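Data deposition worksheet. Section B asks for the primary sequence of the deposited chain exactly as it was used as input, without tags or linkers unless they were present during the calculation. Section C holds the resulting structure in token form. Section D is free text for depositor observations; keep each observation to a single sentence. Incomplete worksheets are returned to the depositor.
Section A, Depositor: J.P.
Section B:
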Amino acid sequence: MPKPKPEPRLALIGFTGSRSFPDPNLIDDGLMDVWHDALEDGYDGIELIHGDADGADSIADAWAMRHGVPRRRRPADWDGPCAANCPQGHRRINRRGSEYCPLAGHRRNQQMVDEGPVLVVAAHHANSSGTADCMRRAKAAGIPIYRLAA
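Section C:
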């Protein structure tokens, strides 16, 4: 009886980025570099995890689709319920008139870090607070950060 083929060993790569990141080619090149580094480190490829936001996350997602790289999308649940540790009365009203939890992005960032990426690629631009938060959380977890600066 033939032996089953083993599952590929993929390096989980976190991605965080600013909605206003101006250079899609820098993201494409950075992800390609990370993919090649993972192959050199003995992985069969990479899997990308990102926050599924507009801007840099969308660019990274499109790159993964073009290259057949598996991806995990982790959108923030802005409209969902608050966490138990959210301060009373902190919810805000967005431009559409809907109430949202301003800490949902931070919870999503922690979720991505908790999934254990071997590296976080950060396309940080224009002092994006969400990208900076994800970078801080990755650093606190001992995850290396590969920063792309435009």
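Section D:
The helical segments are 24-40, 56-67, 104-114, 129-140.
The beta strands are 10-17, 45-50, 71-73, 92-93, 99-100, 119-124, 145-149.
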